[in-house]
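Is this the right way to post structure tokens for a design question? Let me know if I should format differently. Anyway, here goes:
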């Protein structure tokens, strides 16, 4: 079964308060068995619009990735992220 991934490109607009989002999201990652593949780190934009922070989160399958995103717990975290950052967010199915 193909894994599911969250892919987020983020520009933090409030560095001081952004950790509130990270803290709110932590229980969701644990509950849905998320594994961070990329979490920040160096990047160089080669084409298109680039954000300063990039994140790839792996889930056991696409359905779990969707369920985690749509969970009430993540929707609370997402509201915080939207206050403290600008982001592009995709959920994609991996390749087997």
């Amino acid at each position: 079964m193909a894994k599911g991934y969250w892919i987020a490109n983020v520009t933090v607009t409030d560095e001081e308060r952004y950790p509130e989002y990270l803290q709110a999201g932590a229980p969701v990652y644990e509950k849905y068995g998320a594994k961070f593949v990329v979490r920040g780190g160096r990047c160089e934009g080669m084409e298109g619009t680039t954000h300063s922070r990039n994140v790839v989160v792996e889930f056991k399958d696409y359905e779990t990735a969707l369920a985690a995103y749509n969970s009430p717990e993540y929707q609370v975290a997402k509201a915080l992220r939207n206050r403290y950052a600008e982001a592009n967010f995709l959920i994609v199915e991996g390749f087997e």
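Format looks fine. Someone answered above. Worth noting: The helical segments are 18-31, 62-70, 72-84. The first helix runs from residue 18 to 31.
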